[in-house]
Design brief:
Elements: H1 30-44, E1 48-53, H2 58-61, E2 66-68, H3 70-79, E3 84-88, H4 91-100, E4 106-108, H5 124-137, E5 143-148, H6 153-161, E6 165-167, H7 172-182, E7 185-189, H8 192-201, E8 209-212, H9 223-228, E9 231-234, H10 246-255, E10 260-263, H11 269-274, E11 277-278, H12 281-289, E12 296-300, H13 303-312, E13 317-320, H14 336-347, E14 354-355, H15 359-375
This protein binds 1,3-dihydroxyacetonephosphate and iron/sulfur cluster (SF4).
Length: 376
C-alpha cells in the first residue's frame, strides 16, 4: 500500500543545485518513491526505527514509527534498540538522539541541511564570551546556565560542565524552578521568548530579566544590570513563531470572541499574554484531542501541525492564528526522496548522513541531558 499523498510542493523557494536529492524526478515518480520507501522499510524491518517531529510534513509522518515533540522523541530515542534511527526532524534533535543511544546505534538525519535558525543564534564562542563578562559582574558559581534543547551539542556541553541543565518547551517550568533552587541567577539560551514566558509563569517579573545580545558590545548590558538581574535571557528567537502577532489575536477575537487562541511558548511575550493557552507541540496536540465537539481554535504554531490537526479533527473548527503560512523551512527539508536515499544507503551497507557527537563534547552534554530527564 502506498502511504502518503505528496500534496505539498516546494514552489515557494528555489532549491540550490547542491541541495537537490540524488533521486531525481526523472528516475522515480513521487508515487514510486513512496512505494520504494514502503518496500525498503519492510525489508529492513527492526534494523530501522523512524522518528518524526510533529512539524514534519504529512508524507514523512505517515512513515514514522513514533511521532512526538522534542522531549518525547528524546525519551523514545533512549529506549530504541534499532541499529539505525532515522530522525525526521532537525539537526539538534538528531544530535540529542545520538547522545542518548548506544555507540553501536547510528542516528541518520535524512537532510544534513535541516537545521534550526534559533539554534544558530548562539554558538559556543559567544556563550564563552558572555560567561566571561557575567563572571566580571557576578559569581558564576551562583549562575545556573539552562539551554533550550534547540542548540548545538557544544552548548549542551557548556551547560553540563557548569552545573546546568537542558529544557524543552514541555518541561521548561520544572527545569527553571530546579535551576533557581540551585543558584541565584539564571542564564537562559538561546530562546528569549521561552525563557521570558516561563519565568513570568513562575512569578518572576519582567524587570528582573535582561536580554544579552551577542551582536552588541558586552551583550548590550552593563555590569550593574548583570549584577541586579535574576534572569539573563539570550537574544535568540524562532523566526517561525515570531510571525504571530497580537493584532492577529485581536482581529480573531473581535469577530469570534469564543475562538480559543492556543500558542507555542516560542511566541513573543505579548502574544503569550494575549493568548488563552500555551504549550509545547504535544500540549497543543493533546489539548485539541480533548477539545469539545464544535469548539473553535486558532493555533499559533508551525503550519504542518496546524493543517494536520485541522484535517484530523473535522468535528472541531481549527485555523492558523496567522493568515500567512508559518512554515519551518528547515523541518520541511526532510522530504520522501531524502528519506528514500537514507533507506537505500542502509540497504547498500553504505549509510550516509550519520550524526555522531564527539566523545569529548558528549560527556558533559549528557550530564545536562540526564539532569533534565531526572527533573521530569
Ligand atoms: P517542541 O518542544 O514543542 O517539540 O518544540 C520544538 C521546536 O523546535 C518548536 O519550534
Ligand atoms: Fe527551530 Fe523554529 Fe523550526 Fe522549531 S520552528 S525547528 S525553533 S526554526
Amino acid at each position: 500500500m502506498v502511504t502518503g499523498t505528496l500534496l505539498i510542493m516546494l514552489d515557494f523557494y528555489e532549491l540550490k543545485d547542491d541541495h537537490l536529492p540524488k533521486i531525481q524526478d526523472k528516475e522515480l515518480s513521487d508515487e514510486q518513491v513512496l512505494l520504494e520507501i514502503n518496500a525498503l522499510r519492510a525489508k529492513l524491518g527492526d534494523r530501522v526505527a523512524l522518528l518524526g517531529h510533529h512539524y514534519q510534513q504529512d508524507d514523512i509522518i505517515a512513515f514514522a514509527d513514533y511521532t512526538g515533540d522534542s522531549l518525547q522523541l528524546a525519551r523514545e530515542a533512549a529506549k530504541l534498540k534499532a541499529e539505525y534511527i532515522i530522525f525526521c526532524g532537525v539537526h539538534f534533535m538528531a544530535e540529542t538522539a545520538d547522545m542518548l543511544t548506544a555507540d553501536n546505534q547510528n542516528v541518520i538525519l535524512p537532510d544534513m541541511n535541516a537545521g534550526c535558525s534559533m539554534a544558530d543564534m548562539a554558538n559556543r564562542s559567544e556563550i564563552d564570551r558572555a560567561w566571561k563578562s557575567i563572571s566580571k559582574a557576578a559569581n558564576t558559581d551562583t549562575v545556573i546556565p539552562i539551554t533550550y534543547i534547540n542548540c548545538d551539542a557544544k552548548l549542551k556541553d557548556f551547560v553540563g560542565a557548569n552545573g546546568g541543565a537542558i529544557c524543552t518547551s514541555s518541561n521548561a517550568k520544572q527545569v527553571i524552578s530546579w535551576a533557581l533552587e540551585q543558584g541565584e541567577k539564571l542564564l537562559f539560551f538561546p530562546d528569549q521568548h521561552l525563557g521570558r514566558n516561563t519565568c513570568v509563569e513562575l512569578g518572576i517579573s519582567l524587570d528582573e530579566m535582561i536580554v544579552y545580545n551577542p551582536n552588541l558590545q558586552n551583550g548590550g548590558v552593563t555590569a550593574d544590570q548583570i549584577k541586579e538581574a535574576k534572569v539573563i535571557l539570550w537574544y535568540g528567537f524562532c523566526s517561525v513563531h515570531q510571525g504571530f502577532t497580537v493584532d492577529q489575536i485581536k482581529e480573531i477575537k473581535a469577530k469570534e470572541p469564543e475562538r480559543t487562541i492556543l500558542i507555542h511558548p516560542e511566541c513573543s511575550y505579548e502574544v503569550y499574554s494575549a493568548a488563552d493557552m500555551s504549550g509545547s507541540t504535544s500540549f497543543i496536540l493533546n489539548t485539541i484531542k480533548d477539545a469539545p465537539k464544535g469548539s473553535k481554535w486558532a493555533i499559533g504554531t508551525e503550519i504542518n501541525l496546524v493543517n494536520r490537526l485541522a484535517a484530523q479533527f473535522t468535528d472541531l473548527d481549527i485555523l492558523s492564528l496567522s493568515p500567512y503560512q508559518c512554515l519551518c523551512t528547515t523541518m520541511y527539508r526532510v522530504r520522501p526522496r531524502w528519506l528514500l536515499e537514507s533507506l537505500r544507503s542502509i540497504d547498500n551497507n553504505t549509510p550516509t548522513n550519520i550524526i555522531k557527537v564527539p566523545a569529548a563534547i558528549k560527556e558533559n552534554a549528557l550530564k545536562a541531558l540526564d539532569r533534565m530527564l531526572n527533573i521530569c
